[in-house]
Amino acid sequence: MLMNEPDNRFEAALANDSGGRKIGPVILDMQNISLSFGGVRALTDISFNVKQHEIRAIIGPNGAGKSSMLNVINGVYRPQQGEIIYRGQHRKNMDCYAAAKSGIARTFQNIALFKGMTVLDNIMTGRNLKMKSNFLMQALYWGPARREEIEHRVKAEEIIDFLEIQAIRKTPVGRLPYGLQKRVELGRALAAEPEILLLDEPMAGMNVEEKQDMCRFILDVNDQFGTTIVLIEHDMGVVMDISDRVVVLDYGKKIGDGTPDEVRTNQDVINAYLGVAE
Ligand SMILES: Nc1ncnc2c1ncn2[C@@H]1O[C@H](COP(=O)(O)OP(=O)(O)OP(=O)(O)O)[C@@H](O)[C@H]1O
């Protein structure tokens, strides 16, 4: 789809958005990030920020550096240059464990669930970092560990209700259709009660109906839980409809940043999507 084509497929999902959202101050500031793999420059001097409670999209053609940027945000990749300021703390790079502990959760381009485990158990794995009892206490199922397990199960069940997947809570994930697996993956990320949720192509491979559902859940997560969302998505209709601001990458460089309307009319962005040479 071209950048300036209107798309009303997601009106139904948007109708659920209260419209009363308040965007807060910057909570994540990526400054002059550069990342190379040998001779491949995946990211070159990229700066952008994410404000509390906003839906921030990262878009760009294939190989633009979008997933690399998410991997820098949650500490999978360490940039050679730049600085990351999260909750006022300045860092050269994030660390995966610290990122997860400090409220950054993520879903992946290719579903990363335990296929033989049930929906409920997969969502419970998202609670791991919240668990206080140690392995021995859990194995013996001692009083405090038991109480804790019950609390975590209640939380997991709340997420299952929220995502409307009660009917499949005991089904092994591998038996579910793709769209539902994506929803379970969202559930597992939500189980960590993240402050920032990184979504890597949450609608990839979905049909229109599944996309509408996913769109509605993303908007509801943002609205009801106040979760800040950073999402990579190739479907321009979705991006332009649900994002507050969009950053555009091309060949590892930032070529646009602004509201959907600003980005839609940015000539560099239009050229990148139409494949026009510089
Ligand atoms: N682990 C890695 N090792 C070597 N090169 C990598 C690695 N990860 C990414 N790259 C390279 O960095 C560049 C950016 O890749 P990245 O996956 O971030 O792009 P993308 O915008 O997410 O693409 P897509 O939309 O196709 O997923 C590409 O040239 C890619 O080959």
UniProtKB/TrEMBL annotation:
The keyword Transcription does not apply. Gene3D superfamilies: P-loop containing nucleotide triphosphate hydrolases (3.40.50.300). SUPFAM superfamilies: P-loop containing nucleoside triphosphate hydrolases (SSF52540). Residues 28-276 form the ABC transporter domain. It comes from the Bacteria. GO terms for molecular function: ATP binding; ATP hydrolysis activity. The keyword Cell membrane applies. PANTHER family: ABC TRANSPORTER ATP-BINDING PROTEIN (PTHR45772:SF1), CONSERVED COMPONENT OF ABC TRANSPORTER FOR NATURAL AMINO ACIDS-RELATED (PTHR45772). This is ATP-binding cassette domain-containing protein. It comes from Duganella fentianensis.
